[in-house]
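Backbone shape codes:
***
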Amino acid sequence: MPTLICLDVSLSMEQSFADDSLLSHSIASLETLLNNLQKIVPNEFIEIITFSDTASVLIEFTKNYAQLISSLDNIKCQNRTNVPHLMEICLQEAQQWNVITPINIILITDKIPAALKEPLSGFPHGSKISLVALTPTTDVNSKTQAFLNSCNVTGKLYPGPVLGKDSIDRIFENIMLDNYSKFEATLWFGHQSTPVLITPTPDMEILSSISNTPAPKTFPTTLRIHGFLPATDLHNPPYVSRHLVHHSSSTASVKPASKTPDLRIMLNESLRAKDYIAIVDLGQSWFGIISSHLPKSERNLKKSNLIFSIIAPQSFNWLGNPNFLGLKRLVATDKQSNMPYKEGYSKSYDNKSGGGNGMVWIKSSTLKQNILKVVRYAKRLPDKGSAVFIKELNKVRRSILFYGFSDMMGVLCDLLERERTNENAEIIDRCITQLRNELDPTKIIK
């Protein structure tokens, strides 16, 4: 998950500790922390914010650890502490990411902040605050919990007392152990396996709460590939988290490197060349999708990454039950056209949805565009456009049901209800009734 490091630069941080100021010790320990994170999570996006009476971004989200470390030289002591303004800035920065990407906030200050007078809401579910209180006082647990509750996040207090840089280093070491531990697994395909490193570490408890779906208690350490699919057949199902698959130095389950091909490299090259994805069963109808991703910034270098996307149950219904996916040649010829599901309308309509085959809603603007198109045709009823209205309504309804956007069906019905008049009441009421009651995507409403 992305990391926000928030450092208090108020006057109280200038107090003397071990022949130096508290702020100087904190900056030195932050440099040590960044050097250690570079070894453990080299692809972590980190942003540094300094705050006193106002909060300002010292350096924006980046994976360049050299820039992060050099920016620490520009930190200067300022005025009094204003934590509420800091949390507002943190919320703005967190909203740069999508709503399902938790943010890890490391808040370094000299004392435990008081609860916010106006509680904040809007941090992605699963976000947490690692609160480093360098000079804690009494009632630390109750004060910490009150602050976390006012921010609507979970978290943990890492209290002092601080006796020097070494004691701050130990606090940051505990933060690393709690939030940036390595997750090693074994990737299997047939009889071949290779140890891999999954970053960031998947937290199934957080993923279960995000999707509101029961999930395995822990992420499996054995990942078996059950099959492959063309990426165009999978479309773009909603994922709850995405992770990088790195090479692991562990050799416990493999032969000497000189005699064993690297399965991770083979997968990366073959999936990218053929535009395929691999499917991994995580248990309890949760699935992992392994794909090759080539960032725009690295396309000239032809340096791609292996991505592991975690998919909640019933997230790609157009393929049917993923537990029963099989070879196409085993399906009767007259039924092959129905598996997997494909949209039946023109590519000009697809292009508005972000490209690829089918109506793929990967942006909120695209989803609004498709829904509002139906609403525009509803405004023309009953004088003209009834046939076009029914056609467009069926397109959107079909995708809602196949893609599992169950909440969107209610939104669509509410929008159509607003367009209801005495003249179009008959057709609007008939469509709303069928939208609410007919849940078979293969049938059309009339």
